[in-house]
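ok so for the tutorial part 2 we go from a plain amino acid sequence to predicted structure tokens. step 1 is just haveing the sequence, like this:
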Amino acid sequence: MSIVDGEKGVIYKIKNINANNEIKEFLFTLGCFEGEKISITKKLSSNLILNIKGGRYAIDKNLAYLIEIE
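step 2 — the prediction. this is what the tokens look like for a chain of 70 residues:
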């Protein structure tokens, strides 16, 4: 399932990132990569606030759909 389908406050593990290398490299700079823990801090109408490695990042929902969690 995608991180967009997740619930606020639950810690998930990133299973896969379904994107091209450029997007994967960008997410990697945020600490977002396969095997890393991630949680949703807030859901807004067009984006999500994610907690990745203690940092809070606003991610557009179109980008968030590419992050697959387990």
